[in-house]
Amino acid sequence: MGRQQHTSICLNIVLLLYLMVCFVLCPVSGITVSSPAEVHSVRGDAVSLTCTFTSTSRATSHMSVDWSYRPQTGGPPQAFFHFSALVFLPRDGQFNGRVKWLGSPARGEASIQLLNASLSDNGTYTCSVRNPPDVHGFPTSQTVLTVTPKVLAVHFSDVAVILAFILLPSAIITLALLGRMCCPPKDKSQAQGYQSPIEVTPGEEPGLKQIHSKEKNMTCCHIYLLIYKNHNTALYLMDHSNYGSRYQR
After folding, report:
1. What is the per-residue pLDDT across 81-110, written as a single tens digit (0 to 9) for each?
2. How far apart are the C-alpha atoms of 181 and 175, rounded to whole Å?
3. CB 225, CB 208: distance < 8 Å
4. What does residue 17 show for φ and ψ, rounded to 5 degrees?
5. What are phi and psi of 12, to 5 degrees?
6. Cα separation of 164 and 99, whole Å?
7. Where are the membrane-spanning stretches (predicted)?
């Protein structure tokens, strides 16, 4: 009797050790969900919230994905997306019509896309995946989304357009005006009807009429010498006429 009890105790000890080894070397299967810690986006853009999972069991129709949102100001999480063989999109709230399913359970994808991101979307997004019989592990993962206002930036192409449509026409107009000032058009009809302020009327000294036939680009020195020469000629003619009248008397 004593030997049988001793044998039974030894068998129990061996069975207990065997169970302990099985639990240590063969852990219970579980699921692992992962996602980026932070995601940055610009207001108005479409932002992808990535979520992947690994499971020792094949994804079946019992697998489910849930997304929840907690505002940046705090408060309890708000569930807004659910997948379980079918996609259940939000029908009200701030995410209504703005969520797109990007997941593929067969490839371990449970991602979504948020359309037309706004500043009110800033907060923490939690992805939860359940795939029975994997009931242990890390079935959730969180991502902090930061949406910033869009900054207007001037690119080199914009500067080139501004130079082409503003500075280039201005330069052309300036060159045209300078050319017109330096080289005025020679119109014969205008030249014949033009009368210089220093031109004399008919009946005065004929010598001064030569100024009108000269080119308009004469310098001040040339005009002064011409006037001086004509003035001396007029004085000579006046003296000669006076001398002739005296001689006749």
Report:
1. 999 999 999 999 999 999 999 999 999 999
2. 10
3. no
4. -65, -40
5. -65, -40
6. 43
7. 9-33, 159-178
DSSP character at residue 209: G
User: Which neighbouring-strand residues pair with 126?
Assistant: 68, 142
Position of tokens 């019992």? 62
Order of strands across the sheet that contains 52-55: 52-55, 30-34, 136-138
Q: Which of 19-23, 99-103, 122-126, 146-150 has the lowest mean pLDDT?
A: 19-23
Structure tokens at 183: 């080289």
Backbone φ, ψ for residue 59 (5° rounding): -65, 130
- Is residue 69 a contact partner of residue 125, using CB atoms and an 8 Å limit? yes
Cβ distance 153 to 85 under 8 Å? no
Residue positions counted in the chain: 249
Scanning the structure block, which residue is given the tokens 């006429």?
241
pLDDT tens per residue across span 176-208: 777 777 766 555 545 455 454 444 445 544 444
Q: Is 82 left (phi over 0), alpha (psi -120 to 50) or beta?
A: beta
Going by pLDDT thresholds of 50, 70 and 90, the confidence category of residue 21 is: very low
